[in-house]
């Protein structure tokens, strides 16, 4: 029973902060929805169109509504005056490829060319570069490109089939009103020349939009640009998680608290918990530590646990993966010397032979003197993988593919450090200590770049994180 509980705890504790981490890794890459209280976003694709775009701009002006136009490069080229007018009237201009073609049908290099060409056209008209991109039909197939890109991908949270004329203005109005709420990103079209659309469909859209803007005014809702909506969302990171995700996290944290109680975990700094630990018998396979000592089943070890609430808060508050890594490293530096001191001065722990922990944060721990090892293949390792896949599926529909790209980051590993090493590196009063305590750990440039890659859009365009 205790072993089962332990498994459950491990599985839950590694991933307790994953929603935050995933938001860091994937969440900023694609924007779908805001967290505003009084704002929503109107976005128009496929234009500009010489007939309907001017009418739309008139309408938006009348209601003092700001919108985002994802223009097709070739259309912008034909109607620069309309792009200029969008810009002059305070709307945001984004890219919707040079020709309206799915990214599935193009190689990443071609997609990049399409984007760059359109960016150039927009720049030549407005004098400003854009960093917002919406792929045709929302089909994102440019993972490789996006990794190195400065562009932010903007999708939507509500679409209505407005590209079809037969939907009619009444039904369209109804559909739009049912989705009219703060934070919604509405997808509409101001041009009907795309394959699958009807030429005069935007006429219905304009009728419906006027009614929706009227109602929005009554509700105190304002349409804003996507960049403003993203900025507001990034300023309120705690709101990035949906209610259901927060509920899941809360459940995790309750489980965490229960575990702490049942297993009587000690906390290194109770006022600012980061590391918890307990004295127990080692249960894993025989392993040789860096100093040549062998740990086998039954040996006493100090088992480490991160504070999940703290990790979760850290991941929410960090602006980037690098930032998160730095915070974690600083907390480790802060806690390890105290831990060494506490363990050394606890007679009940005098026969402990190693620090032991299981974690998925397996890139940095070597710097602290830990040996990092693969988890033994078995029920636990399998269960964590299944769980992770499941979680990724819930969090993002294409999560599985994305997971492959970062798989090595999310694999649980075993950490081990001999007591000898702990004392030498961290103990204050050890006479055999060789180094001054709290040696500062630096992130190598390589590591930093790697972490940065993971984060791309999150840091692109924003100032470097203060450390
Ligand atoms: Zn389109």
From TrEMBL:
Q: What is this protein called?
A: Chitooligosaccharide deacetylase
Q: Which organism is it from?
A: Paenibacillus pini JCM 16418
Gene3D superfamilies listed in its UniProt record: Glycoside hydrolase/deacetylase
Matching entries from SUPFAM superfamilies are given as: Glycoside hydrolase/deacetylase
Query: What GO biological process terms are annotated to this protein in UniProt?
Result: carbohydrate metabolic process
- Alphabetized InterPro entries for the sequence: Glyco_hydro/deAcase_b/a-brl, NODB_dom, Polysacc_deacetylase_ArnD, YkoP-like_dom
Swiss-Prot/TrEMBL keywords: Membrane, Transmembrane, Transmembrane helix
User: What Gene Ontology molecular function terms does this protein carry?
Assistant: hydrolase activity, acting on carbon-nitrogen (but not peptide) bonds
Question: Which part of the chain is the NodB homology domain?
Answer: 38-224
Q: Which residues cross the membrane?
A: 6-26
């Amino acid at each position: 029973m205790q072993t089962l509980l332990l498994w459950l705890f491990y599985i839950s504790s590694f991933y307790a902060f994953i929603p935050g981490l995933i938001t860091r890794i994937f969440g900023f890459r694609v924007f779908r929805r805001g967290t505003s209280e009084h704002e929503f976003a109107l976005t128009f694709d496929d234009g500009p169109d010489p007939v309907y775009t001017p009418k739309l701009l008139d309408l938006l002006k009348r209601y003092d509504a700001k919108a985002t136009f994802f223009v097709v490069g070739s259309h912008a080229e034909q109607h620069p005056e309309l792009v200029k007018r969008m810009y002059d009237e305070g709307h945001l201009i984004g890219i919707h490829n040079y020709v309206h073609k799915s990214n599935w049908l193009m190689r990443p290099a071609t997609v990049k060319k399409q984007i760059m060409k359109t960016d150039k056209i927009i720049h030549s008209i407005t004098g400003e570069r854009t960093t917002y991109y919406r792929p045709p039909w929302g089909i994102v197939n440019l993972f490789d490109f996006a990794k190195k890109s400065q562009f932010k991908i903007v999708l939507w949270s509500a679409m209505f089939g407005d590209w079809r004329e037969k939907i009619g203005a009444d039904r369209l109005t109804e559909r739009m009103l049912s989705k009219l709420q703060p934070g919604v990103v509405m997808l509409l079209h101001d041009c009907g020349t795309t394959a699958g659309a009807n030429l005069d469909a935007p006429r219905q859209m304009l009728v419906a939009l006027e009614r929706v803007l009227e109602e929005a005014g009554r509700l105190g809702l304002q349409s804003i640009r996507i960049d403003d909506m993203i900025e507001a969302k990034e300023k309120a990171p705690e709101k990035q998680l949906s209610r259901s995700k927060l509920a899941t996290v809360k459940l995790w944290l309750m489980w965490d608290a229960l575990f702490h109680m049942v297993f009587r975990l000690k906390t290194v700094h109770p006022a600012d918990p980061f590391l918890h630990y307990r004295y127990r018998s080692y249960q894993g396979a025989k392993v040789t530590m860096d100093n040549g000592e062998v740990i086998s089943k039954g040996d006493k070890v100090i088992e480490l646990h991160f504070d999940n609430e703290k990790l979760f808060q850290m991941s929410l508050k960090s602006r980037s993966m690098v930032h998160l890594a730095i915070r974690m490293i600083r907390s480790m530096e802060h806690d390890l010397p105290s831990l060494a001191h506490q363990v050394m001065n606890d007679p009940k722990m005098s026969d402990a032979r190693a620090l032991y922990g299981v974690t998925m944060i397996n890139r940095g721990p070597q710097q602290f003197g830990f040996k990092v090892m693969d988890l033994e293949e078995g029920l636990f390792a399998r269960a964590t993988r299944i769980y992770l896949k499941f979680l990724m599926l819930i969090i993002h529909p294409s999560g599985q593919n994305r997971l492959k790209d970062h798989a090595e980051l999310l694999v649980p590993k075993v950490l081990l450090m001999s007591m000898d090493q702990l004392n030498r590196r961290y103990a204050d009063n050890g006479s055999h200590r060789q180094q001054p305590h709290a040696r500062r750990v630096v992130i190598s440039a390589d590591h930093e770049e790697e972490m940065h890659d993971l984060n791309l859009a999150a840091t692109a365009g924003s100032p470097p994180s203060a450390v």
